[in-house]
From TrEMBL:
It comes from the Bacteria. It is a multi-pass membrane protein. This is Oxidoreductase. Residues 222-322 form the FAD-binding FR-type domain. InterPro entries: FAD-bd_8, FAD-bd_FR_type, Fe3_Rdtase_TM_dom, FNR_nucleotide-bd, MRET, OxRdtase_FAD/NAD-bd, Riboflavin_synthase-like_b-brl. It comes from Virgisporangium ochraceum. Its cofactor is FAD. One of its GO terms (molecular function) is metal ion binding.
Amino acid sequence: MTATTQPYTGARPAIPPSTVAQGVLWAFVAVNLLVMWTLFATSDGGKNTILTIAKFFGMHVALIMMFQLLLISRLPFLDRRIGMDRLTVWHRWVGFTLLWFVVAHATFVILGYAALDGVAPWRTFFALASVPATILGMSAATIIVFVAISSVRYARRKMSYETWHAIHFLLYAALLLGLIHQFLEPATFQTSTWSTVYWWALWALVLTSLAMGRVVLPVYRNLYHQFRVAAVVPESDNVVSVYVTGRNLERFPGRAGQFMIWRFPGHNRWWQANPFSLSAAPNGRSLRLTAKGVGKTSSGLRNLRVGNRVFAEGPYGAFTAMHRNSEAMLLIAGGVGITPIRSLLEECGGNIVVLYRAATPADAVLFPELQALAQARGARLHLLTGRTGAGQPPNTPFEPANLLHLVPDITHRDVFVCGPPAMTNAVLRTLRTLRVPKRQVHAEKFGFA
């Protein structure tokens, strides 16, 4: 029998945390656009109309690049409220916007000086290539174009994550070249004292945020906690759990449902890192990750030695009960996506239903733990097995009618979904069809890059 549930209002904030964070982020963009447009309108134009347009695009290139850095700075305030997966998607599309603004800026610069000197654009291109400030700008633009091409889906699928990540590191070179280029362009960025103060203060803010989120905070946490491997436990032929201990773990700020980026110095090369969810709620004594061996790094985890040093970045992600809106929850997992779902079940109380999709019962990783937790929490647990589409009627557990049959009160529940992209997308389509309120839907997708 399914209990009748009502929306939970006791602990729900007046404004959802994600709305607050997005409001702060877009306010940052809006305020700086307004300031930049004011500086542009009150400054002298270029030597001709075309160069004035080039200047307009150039100022936007600088602001877009700063926004790009802010999106990947991994600041806890943004990450825990918006989520790295959504921030990464925004970063991708803002990156392509940056590409077109860079191309537009370069094109108008060449056309503007060609019109000014009365020569062909190609002659102007080679003439500008001899100017130091322009060489730096051209080099930065070339790197941005190269990285953008490598991020197109077709190209991305042809290379490993490590290769793609290494190519992205070139953007730091583009950033340095762009900063020097901006410094050498007084006609655009140093038209007044206020303009100079504004641009360099903004750069200082963004670069400090990037350094804090990507370097200072991870280094500090690893020095403070001194993570080490405490145990390695095979869960099946291709799945292993790694228990990590350390100092002062009672002060570790992780939540059930979050993930960390794990490195194992001495076992793997320093650039080999993997994002694995916490498969148990942090308890102040140890952390646990559970991974399926799908690549060289994850497959080698079962060979880790007890006492091996661990360098862990995080915790990251907004897939937590912080975003819960109602007392009742539906937790849906597929494959190894059970890891954050299992930790959420451990942390959360209330009226909970768990749907675990696996090909066979033998593929249901951590299922005995789920059974024990479900019994302790009073939750209903359903193991959904079999090949999708097989049999008569077809095995389609996440079709609207079938999901509604399993969870009749689904529209009153917070739904947390984690699994392979195809399954996650199928569930999200069904939730839209069933008109589950968007604020009650929380999805974690595999796809760190």
